[in-house]
Amino acid sequence: MASGDDDDPIIEEIDVYLAKSLADKLYLFQYPVRPNTMTYDDVNHLSAKIKPKQQRVELEMAINTMSPNYCRSKGEQIALNVDGTTYDESNTYSVKMMDKQTFSSIQATTNTSRYAAAIFRKGELHVTPLQGILQMRPSFTYLDKADSKTREREAANEGGDSSQDEAEDEAKAITVRFARPESEQARQRRIQSYEFLQKKQAEEPWSHLHYHGVKDGRSEHERQYLYCQAMDTTENSELVKTPKEYLAMLMPPLAEEKVVKPVGPSNVLSMAQLRTLPLGDQVKTLMKNVKVMPFANLMGLLASGTDSTAVLRCIQQVALLVQGNWVVKSDVLYPKNSCSPHSGVPAEVLCRGRDFVMWRFTQERSVMRKEISAVIKLPPEDVKEFLEHMAVPRVNRGWEFLLPSDGDFIKKHPDVAHRQHMLWLGIQSKLEKVFNFSKEDFMPKNAPQPEPVHISGEQRLKAAQDRVRENQSSLQQDLNAKRQGAKPSAHIKQELVINREDEPMDTTSPHSSSSIPNGSINGYPISISPISDHTNGNGGSPATSPSPELRDFVSKTFRKHFVLTLSELKRLFNLHLASLPAGHSLFSSISDRLLQDTILLSQCKQILVPFPAQSTAAPDEQKVFGVWETGDTFDKHRRLLFELFTKNYRVKRNMVQTRLVQEFGDDVSKADIDRLLRECCCSRTGMWYLKGTIQS
């Protein structure tokens, strides 16, 4: 410390005094739009006023209209716009020219405890705390007055004879509504609203002031109060604090200020808070606020690395697919026992009306508001709210769906698209009963009908002709044999038996009772027309061996999923049929037997899983097939796993790990086990099941 004192010697000691005479009245004015070399000291100040509680000040200063830099024509034009041509005592500019301007203040900071004004005199420093720091900026309220004058003139020009207007007035029915009791959240939102703050500011009256220039005698008198007035009293004793205490007084440690969070609307949630919620709640919250969203945008809002399959499961619980985009379900926006904030209509009625609007958008890009209102018969405020959730108004085109159709999502997730299509068919049937309409009522006249996928007439005719010729040949052979005393051929009987055994494959989902109806899957027309005589689609003989296209489909599907039940494969095959282009005749009639034969010919084998006796799985769900040979070294791991599942329909992870280590030694890594289970199994309550063998 001694060496430090020698290097930094004290040059001079200055006494510091705290002046308190002006502590509650001293303001610092700043003019941020004016250079510091151009002060307003010599400008004539016409008036001044203040609102002390708000620390708001207004100064009115004269403009030198004789200056060579003043544009007289502009000044006269502004005065004319503001005051008009008539003279009145309330005119802003009495000389028909803009000869003054107003400066209005805003607070530069709300905490001035660390700021003070200091003045140095004869080796003494006198410090006075500041009450406020205000930034003075030009006010343009005269432009608002000019706008109101313009509107008044336009209204006067457009207005007709007032007596005629009064004569045309008729008695109109009015609706009396009683205000609901204000909740605490609503009160907080109202207090923080801009309108409320403006009203509170207007309630405080202005206090008018007298301005004194810098060189005025009153100003010089007031400046004397910047000096401490009690310098000779005993209160001004020497500082007896230690250096550490004195430093702590000069620079107190920063205390963590408790920032009071503003009470915002209940539906406002930051992304950081959102990501602390479970995935289902995240998806529900986002959809409830956004209303309509593409799946890609939803994945972008969620945390990176979120499983898209899990998101797909969650989104289907709170939203419906419309034109490839997800629209929040009506019962999420209007929960049970709630009502419309506009009309008081019950939630159940609102949900039906909004579902009808959503269904209409699955059929067309644009809808007419009058057509919607005529069907659902709800108040116009509710109908408008439904449309604003998912559409935008277009000139002469009604309301157009908010987002472009997302065909990429439909192509990437055809199973989801099909499931949503079937769901919409169920909703449509309910809406038809409730609102008493049919889909054809909304079909535009001369609208092009979608071309269904079907077997052409020529192909059917050729198949029938081949069948007749074949039967005629068989009958002729039997007739000749009878004449020669031989037994007739059993060709026809055998053929009938084969046709009975090799029935067309049921391409419905396991939980559906009917085949895919003709219609569209989110805008893609489909119509499946199986051939009753089980030809191969080209008019030939019954299909007894799989076509190359079928084998290619089965092979690629198993290379992607590794393990499939027969019902799941049929569902994927069903979706594949729906995605075929118009006029495509392949896979028109495939039997379960042919499909199973194709599976076994695609390097796959059936896994005889011992399902429990109380299992509710359908027969097709109990037929499990897995990839047996892919040419990969990982095949042996997969076959060993399948062997475990022939002994029990569920296994534990440690059982799989132990069996693999026994067979392949320590070469089996954790990554290998993870890959094996991820490819072939799904987990539930700590146990692992083959894919498709456990019901969701």
From TrEMBL:
Record Pfam families: RPC5, RPC5_C
Annotated stretches, region: Disordered: 146-171, 459-548
GO biological-process terms attached to the record: tRNA transcription by RNA polymerase III
Biased composition (Basic and acidic residues): 146-156, 459-470, 492-502
GO CC aspect terms: RNA polymerase III complex
Low complexity bias spans: 507-523
Ranges annotated as biased composition (Polar residues): 529-547
Domain called DNA-directed RNA polymerase III subunit RPC5 C-terminal: residue spans: 444-696
InterPro entries named in the record: RNA_pol_III_Rpc5, RPC5_C
PANTHER family for this protein: DNA-DIRECTED RNA POLYMERASE III SUBUNIT RPC5, DNA-DIRECTED RNA POLYMERASES III 80 KDA POLYPEPTIDE RNA POLYMERASE III SUBUNIT 5
Protein name: Polymerase (RNA) III (DNA directed) polypeptide E
Chain's gene name: POLR3E
